Amino acid sequence: MKQFTKISRYEDGEKSVSVLLDGEESELIFLDKSNAPADCNDVFEESPHAYCIIYSRNDWDSFKQAEEWLQALWKADVVRNKAVILVGNKNDIVRPNVVPSGVGKQMATRYDCKFIETSVIINYNVDELLVGILTQIRLKLDQPPEHTHHARSSSMRKRSKSPLGNCGPTFKKYRGSRTSTSLRVKGLLSKVWARDSKSKSCENLHVL
């Protein structure tokens, strides 16, 4: 059973959090980088183990900025081997949020990253996020080299632009026959099932 405790401190603009997970204590150091970069590699002196992209659920502009971060990470091929978590904060707002939960989840699914909603004010899902970050880091570090190599070869072909730029299904044109129609239907269902599977797993921070 997973257990955790946390001790936070601030030093030189960094926030340090100690997390106990599966009997092993780890220290997470958070660096606040608020501006979306043109190249994420220019932001950090050393490549971090995880990226936590946070937006406010009552601020559409912050959601757009979060998308810019995800685009930069995607183009740099970071999502494949680093933990990337999209966080919708301010889930405590009583009035309807500007950014619905489904929209955040959909974007996380398309960028192959994780998704969680939190509220720092009422401490909703904050501990779950910390444990999820550490879990994702460990899972990514434990990936076998074969998986990493296969993911690299299959993903590099689509890193030149955002996955949102081509989110609709595309099909080759077949001449009218029942066989060709069934192939198109089968292709559509495969895409839908794959998308639904990713959508369900993007909120599970304990699996890749």
From TrEMBL:
Any one Gene Ontology molecular-function term assigned to this protein's record: calcium channel regulator activity
Gene3D superfamilies for the chain: P-loop containing nucleotide triphosphate hydrolases
Protein name per UniProt: GTP-binding protein RAD-like
Family membership noted in the UniProt record: Belongs to the small GTPase superfamily. RGK family.
Composition-biased stretches (Basic residues): 149-161
Cellular component, GO, one term: plasma membrane
Alphabetic keyword roster: Phosphoprotein
Disordered: annotated span: 144-175
InterPro entries to which the protein is assigned, alphabetical: P-loop_NTPase (IPR027417), RGK_GTP-binding_reg (IPR051641), Small_GTPase (IPR001806)
Top-level taxonomic group: Eukaryota
PANTHER family given in the database record: RAD, GEM/KIR FAMILY MEMBER 2, ISOFORM C, RAD, GEM_KIR FAMILY MEMBER 1, ISOFORM B
PROSITE patterns attached to this UniProt entry: RAS
Species in which this protein is naturally found: Aphis craccivora (Cowpea aphid)
Segments crossing the lipid bilayer: none
